[in-house]
Amino acid sequence: MRYEQRAYARVKFLELMAELYENDFENFFHRLMCSRYPDFLDVRTAGSLGDMSADGLALHSRKLYACYAPQTVKPSEIRKKFRGDLAGALAKRRGQFNTFVFVHNDRRGVHPEVTAMLTEAATSTPDIRFEQMGSRRLWHECMQLDQMTAEDVLRCEIPIKEMTFGVGMEDLEPLLKQLQEIRASSDPLMPLPDVRIEKLDFNRLEGEAREDLLRGMRQAHLVEAFYAGSMRELEHDEVAQGFRVYYEQVCREWDDPEDVLWQLQMYMLGNAQPRPKVLRAALVVLAHFFGRCDIFKVPPAGWRPEVGISA
């Protein structure tokens, strides 16, 4: 899908997340996961057996999924649901899974109660891995669908005509806002962080695209500081995964590295013309994930360009 189609699909996805609860959310989750993974089993209830404490099972990755999507989120109910599903899964499906995934519909991120429960469960049940799957990860799965499958999962037609979207990833809005407020002019003499300049050469990033990333690298530490602290580490990892997924898609459609960088900018900001201050902040974010090696390829050990390009 083109950027405009992905952006339209994201709008429809967010609309769904705002209105899907209980069984409707579980049905959406089943459609999505069955479309993505041939080994996913969308477990249904069966008389007195119920669903044996599993809303879904992945045979190859040995993951068990438990959905929780109430209209009103109450911490006490979250804990009750989580503990009940985990106890039931361990009692009824022991040996069928290695990872317990708590799936929820909270668009704002991971509820603090969920983070506490996952930590406690990981400590008390060391032989089982624990994950959560919220709006970000569900969207990452949607991003990898082709147009026809996405239309089926999202229950809507995705238009082919070009459209203009002035918004991109709303998850990055707080970060971009902070970077605009505290970002100072780049000091050209400021030492670059520990990033292999060869990576720029290996990915054929030259000219303005190269200079944009180099300027951003000198302030990429501001992004690291924003995500510092245990409460934001999970968000950092999920945002990075989103960049990785989108980068891989873009590379299948665009050969020119400058075009790839442009597509990644639109992923953050939309395809409407951004204000210069917003664009500069976005380039700092891209430089950060470039340095983390979430986007663009890493040169093999010992690789050197035939004709060096100095930074």
Please describe what this structure looks like.
This protein has 311 residues and is of the alpha/beta class. The chain has two domains: 3-154, Restriction Endonuclease, CATH 3.40.91; 170-291, no CATH class. Helix content is 53%, strand content 7%. The chain is globular. The model has no long low-confidence stretch (mean pLDDT 85).
What are its keywords?
Restriction Endonuclease, 311 residues, 7% strand, 13 helices, 5 strands, five-stranded mixed β-sheet, single chain, alpha/beta
Q: Report the radius of gyration as a whole number of Å.
A: 21 Å
Largest sheet: 5 strands, mixed
Number of DSSP E strands? 5
Structural domain count: 2
Shape: globular
- Summing up helix and strand content along with how strands pair, one would put the structural category as alpha/beta
Task: Tell me the series of helices and strands, N- to C-terminal.
Answer: HHEEEHEHEHHHHHHHHH
Strand order within the widest sheet? 1-2-3-4-5
Domain ABC-three component systems C-terminal: 170-297
Protein name: ABC-three component systems C-terminal domain-containing protein
Pfam families: CTD10 (PF20275)
List the helices and strands and how they pair.
Layout: H1 3-19, H2 22-36, E1 40-41, E2 56-58, E3 63-68, H3 75-92, E4 99-104, H4 112-124, E5 129-133, H5 135-143, H6 147-154, H7 173-182, H8 198-202, H9 207-217, H10 221-226, H11 230-253, H12 257-269, H13 276-291
Parallel strand pairs: 3-4, 4-5
Antiparallel strand pairs: 1-2, 2-3
